[in-house]
Design goal:
Elements (H helix, E strand, L loop, with lengths): L4 H7 L1 H9 L1 E5 L3 H13 L3 E5 L24 H12 L4 E5 L8 H4 L6 E4 L4 H13 L4 E4 L11 E5 L7 H12 L7 E5 L12 H4 L15 H18 L1
Parallel strand pairs: 1-2, 1-4, 2-3, 4-5, 5-7
Antiparallel strand pairs: 6-7
Helix pairs in contact: 1-2, 3-4, 3-9, 6-7
Length: 240
Amino acid sequence: MEQFVRTKLLLGEQKIKKIFESKVTVVGLGAVGSFAVEILARVGVGNLTLVDFDVVQESNINRQLYALHSTINIKKAELAKNRVLDINPNCKVKTFDVFVNTDTLDTIFSETPDIVIDAIDSYNPKLRLLEYCYKHNIKIISSMGAALKTDPFSIKYADLFETHHCKLAERLRGDLRSLGISKGIPCVFSEQSPQIKPIPLPEQEGKKYGKNGGPKILGSTPVITGIFGILLANKTIELI
């Protein structure tokens, strides 16, 4: 197809054929995941499984590819599928509008992909996904914390157990070691220390979570989160 001529010129016939035949699962379609999916669709990945249970909110517009005023309250998985098919109508797209946990992982991975991109921003689902893929010998590349960072040149690729200056990675290392995992999970992370502290949710919104006020708001921009997603996609293409 003409739309892939330039990609084929750069990579060659054999490599582009592998990309067309590849199967990639992206879990989490927010700030990082939406950019990863964009690159995979435009380079010609032939089979995409997209996983996200959430809808677009107005606060997503500053950094998420699917977030527009016209898409508020629409499911991210639905929006992602429609965009992928508009980019490449020949791509086979499957979506799972589910929350990732131990009850849903077998369903999500009823067919084993060539590689998984973990772009989840919730801790427990991320931990369960990494454990599942590692113990089922499913290749996975994970995104560490992209929020609270501002320097694109500090973004690196390494094994999760060799990262630094990332609180999320530090916490994951401890929990993964307790599960018998101490290496073998590649990730994208930032060497930059957090530039600001998280802030609490507004009082009215935080009340529904009880005394602790619920999750904190993490400042972020589309520059850093977008680069995280693009690097995850690039490494996925390299591995394919």
